Amino acid sequence: MFKIIKWLVLAIVILGLAATAVIYGVLSISLPALDGNGRSNHVSQAVKISRDQLGQAVISAENRLDAAYGLGFAHGQDRFFQMDLLRRNAAGELSELFGKAALGLDKKMRFHQLRKRSAAIVEQLPQADQALLTSYAAGVNEGLAQVGFSSFEYLLTGAEQKPWRSEDSLLVIYSMYLDLQTATFERDQALIQIADIYGPEMVSFLTQPSQYQAALDGSTLAPYNLTIPEFPKQTLQALLRIDANQERGSNNWAVTGQLTTTGAGMLSDDMHLSMAVPVIWYRAQLNYAMSGKVSQVTGVSLPGAPAIVVGTNNNIAWGFTNGYLDTADWVALTDNSKTWQEVEQIALPDGSIEEYKLTLSEYGPVREINGKPYALSWVGHQPYAVDMDLLKLEQATTVDDALLIASEVGIPVQNLMVVDSQGNAGWKNMGAIPGRIKPSELAVQENDYSTLWQHNEQQRPEVKNPVDGRLWTGNSRVVSALDDQRFGNGGYALGARSSQIRDRLYEKQHFNEANFNQLQHDNQARFLQPWHSLLLQQLNKNSTANQQYIKELENWQGCACATSIGYTLVRRYRDEVINSVFTAMQANLQAQGGSLKYVKRDLEPAIWQLIEQQPDSWLNPQFADWDAQLTDSFSQVVSKLSKEFGSNLKGWQWGTVNELVIEHPFAQQIPQLSKLLNMPTAPGFGDSYMPAVQGRSFGASQRFIAQPGHLENAIMAIPGGQSGHPLSPFYRAGFDDYVAAKPTPLLPQTLMHEITILPANEL
């Protein structure tokens, strides 16, 4: 019997090893070659694609068209599946890969008809831009062909690798539009629903300006000075969780040369996005000649697009944060409004077609809100939404050059922060801004619809070389209070993060890269201090029963630190108080297909007014008084933490509760491959409302610091590797330094690999 068991165990081990060998064998044949020579009909002169120990792609070409080919070749080798997901996401074509499970998402995207819009825009682009996209697409397809075998994602789904087309690069930019601006029109929808149910006074109360304002000119919006609106009689109901929309935001700041030892301006930029494997950005350096001058541009690219998105040409350095200007309006339609239907055909893996009927109007696609028809007029639907003008930054030599370009660039509107080697620093909104001059968070009547929607706004504010030498943005209002009336609130961040960055910048008189790196990792919990005081006050009312929690709060360290249990308690307490107070409103919105999700970030001033004034109409009817309601919120915290992490308080440390988990899209579907596919987990460090932004799968997708003309100390840290192939040595390269806050160099290090592509007709 023992021998039989022994042989069975041995057989299982052998089969397991054999299965592992098969998996690795299949994966290994799809690894791209990183050295060698090739020929192409799509290059005019030799193109070199080199890689350093991080896998950073260094493209060397004689002109910009060939450089686009080289970047496309590297993207096609390392990131094609990621690029495919981005274009399919924007076009609403994921069902062809994943079947009916993706139909809901595809229909949501087909609402915008972005495949049609991309194809139309490509035809309108200048010939030089069309040629650039054609060259890039050829590079992508030939880089993919060089691999020779489909990557494991296509083997698992059984899907076909479709060639890259010029319009797909625009779809990738549209994918960023959807990521960065969906919250703007979804927030407007929620406010329309709230106004419809509770009246416009409630909207004013919920969206009142906060105490955290950090506009560059120091202006503040007038505080809310009306009484708290009466809340309709509430019925007893279960407590609802109100999710918060993840703030697609970023930090950037800059100082002029008067505050650096080199005399050059210095820039910091970290863009906050959802994190997955592979990480969204791709390190690259482009070396090419233009107008008789050699250009070298280093930074991060977005796989699928032929540009360096954030980086430096050693004359200037630039970075972005999401602008959150109001770029969308819902237009209220009537029975007399002209509408028509179109049918979108969504392909499924078996070749069948799912039809999606879409109602359109002259203002945009139509959706019902509270049972009434509204048309979405959104800048993303306009012909000027997307173009190739971002590439012009590569040739800018001064801050003035960059600020001049800003009004022409077709991207989701961003806060451009730029510095130059001469010591200048500037800010301006770059990207598409509708020309209409009266933005509205509530519905617009047809008679008030402006034809200026068809024009990109050219007149926009800017700041260059402020007297104190400091600039900052963090997704809150940057423009003056007067300009705010013109450009509107598209879902601004609360301002706590921007305020903290501003205050930190005024704590020093001179800066270097190490100072900026430290500020990027600042996780001091200034925003939660009032909540910490409130919770301590509540717990001290029964100090004996709450002794262990009080101890953790008194030792909370005042930061989103990995070992802090007190921070977890305060952070969760705030969420539960908001859930409790706004449950009835959330329930009413859900009954109409809505949610407070996109308004939750606005609620801070309102919730504090309610806590301080404790109006009877807002009291949840299951509680005798507000004190009972606030006490119960902490009971909810303890109950939920115990259920999620066990009853031992050591398991409630913020580093565990907010653990950084960066996963491959297939890891959850195939858990057996999770170790192979995912990044290592790391203790949570940071949170919302502070410079060091981090959630479980969200945070700084890159950290960039540079002084043009002095790039030897420039930094570019990224939470993942270059390659999307799990057997590549570059799959996780750079991740460990990112989580350890080490200053990963921006510039390529020793080159280890090189591919040379020659013209096909060259002897």
UniProtKB/TrEMBL annotation:
<keyword id="KW-0865">Zymogen</keyword>
<keyword id="KW-0378">Hydrolase</keyword>
<protein>
    <submittedName>
        <fullName>Penicillin acylase family protein</fullName>
    </submittedName>
</protein>
<dbReference type="InterPro" id="IPR023343">
    <property type="entry name" value="Penicillin_amidase_dom1"/>
</dbReference>
<comment type="subunit">
    <text>Heterodimer of an alpha subunit and a beta subunit processed from the same precursor.</text>
</comment>
<dbReference type="InterPro" id="IPR043146">
    <property type="entry name" value="Penicillin_amidase_N_B-knob"/>
</dbReference>
<dbReference type="InterPro" id="IPR002692">
    <property type="entry name" value="S45"/>
</dbReference>
<dbReference type="InterPro" id="IPR029055">
    <property type="entry name" value="Ntn_hydrolases_N"/>
</dbReference>
<dbReference type="InterPro" id="IPR014395">
    <property type="entry name" value="Pen/GL7ACA/AHL_acylase"/>
</dbReference>
<dbReference type="Pfam" id="PF01804">
    <property type="entry name" value="Penicil_amidase"/>
</dbReference>
<dbReference type="InterPro" id="IPR043147">
    <property type="entry name" value="Penicillin_amidase_A-knob"/>
</dbReference>
<comment type="similarity">
    <text>Belongs to the peptidase S45 family.</text>
</comment>
